[in-house]
Structures are given as structure tokens and as C-alpha cells.
Amino acid sequence: MFRLIPALSLVLGLAACANGQSQLKKPLVPVGDFKLGHAAVVAPNLVEGPVSRNATEEEWIASVDAAVEERFRRYEGDKFYHMGISVEGFVLAQPGVPLVFSPKSALILRVTVWDDATQTKLNAEPEQFTVLESFTAETVVGSGVTQTKAQQMRNLSANAALQIEKWMRRMQAEEGWFGGPDATPQAADAPKLPAGAKPGTAAAAPRKAAS
After folding, report:
1. For residue 143, which of 80, 111, 139, 206 is within the disulfide window of CB 3.0 to 4.6 Å?
2. What are phi and psi for residue 30, nearest 5 degrees?
3. Interval 1-42: pLDDT, tens
4. Buried b / exposed e across 3-24, counting CB within 10 Å, b at 16+?
């Protein structure tokens, strides 16, 4: 089993990541043929990091599940995929910690994606994510001072869902997940090949007029 306590201890000096909640307001771009089937969130090996507020397995499961449902139920692709998510560890910055330490909240989880049609895993080994709280005016002095535990958990869970989506899009482009890059709307905007040209053959660039 990998060591979580040292990893959670390091978050005190890390920078915050993008805001998962605000990203939901952006126009929806399909992830290939992805459509969420089942999302199973568990926390059998949950580790609480140092200088953290307390949170139960049930609280984390509910928080992460809500964020995953909110982000991924929006996609209406042609194929079902399932997600298995294990919440592994967390730090929830608490009030009373000297500001010089710049305490950060963080969440560690592992994710596996399944193809419903083939009943196989897309990633043989779970992908691990270390997710940090968003940088806002409230978190500059430490989210433990300005946010409740519930707010911290919602923030981290939304950011986790966003990081999972970014990873899935990268796997689509690099590994052909979810129908591959041709399944994305952007592919329709790609330059069309000249008549008779074979796929993979670059079209000749137009020559510049002589000056």
C-alpha cells in the first residue's frame, strides 16, 4: 500500500488548482462517446492527514459522489462507461493554524473507468489524483478560517471531478478512449483533405504570391 501521510503532509506548500464549480458554467463539450453508467464511490482505506478537520467515510463518499454526478451526468454520448472511485486520504485545513504555514485542503483519490460494452477496464491500474482547493479570496488566508468543513469538501470534490474529466480527455486524445479524438466535435472543424488525398497525408501549403 502506498504511503499517504507523507503525501498529505506535502500539501501545506502546494499551490491551489482550478475551480471545479466555475468550470461547470462553461459550454459543454462532449468527451467522445462517453455517457456515465454507474459511478461507485468508496472509501475503505481513508486516511486523515495531519492538522486536519475530521470527516467520515460516509461524508466523503456523499460529497465526491454528488460532484461526479453533477459533472458527468451532463454528457450524452452513445456508449455507457462506469467509474470506480476510491477516496484514499484528505486534509481539511482548520482554523487556529498559524497563517505562516498557509494550510491547504487536499484530497487524494484513485479512479478506474470501465467500458460497459466490453466489461473491461480502460486503465489496468487505478489512476491516482492529488486534488487541492481552489485559489480564491477566501482561501488566501487558509480555507479553515473562512470556510466550513462542508464548503471545503464541496470545493475539493468539485475540483476532483474536474481533474478526472481532464484526465479522461487526455486519455481520449492519447489512447483512443471514448471513440478517440475523431469522436469530438472539434474533429468536424478540422481542415478537409483535397479530393483524392489519402488520410494522414498533409495537404500542400498554398504558395505565396511573388512580391
Report:
1. 139
2. -55, 150
3. 445 555 555 554 444 455 656 677 788 999 999 999 999 999
4. ebeebbeebbeeebbebbbebe
The pLDDT value recorded for residue 21 is: 65
pLDDT at 79 over 70: yes
Classified as helix, coil or strand, 71 is helix
Give CA–CA dist 181/187, Å, rounded: 7
Report phi then psi at 130, rounded to 5. -115, 115
**Structure-block grid coordinates of residue 26:** 462553461
How long, in residues, is the chain? Answer: 211
Q: Which three-class secondary structure state does DSSP give residue 107?
A: strand
Q: Give the distance between the most distant pair of CA atoms in the chain.
A: 73
Residue 17 is predicted with a pLDDT of: 55
Question: Which residue type sits at 162?
Answer: L
**Residue that is written with C-alpha cell 454520448 in the block:** 77
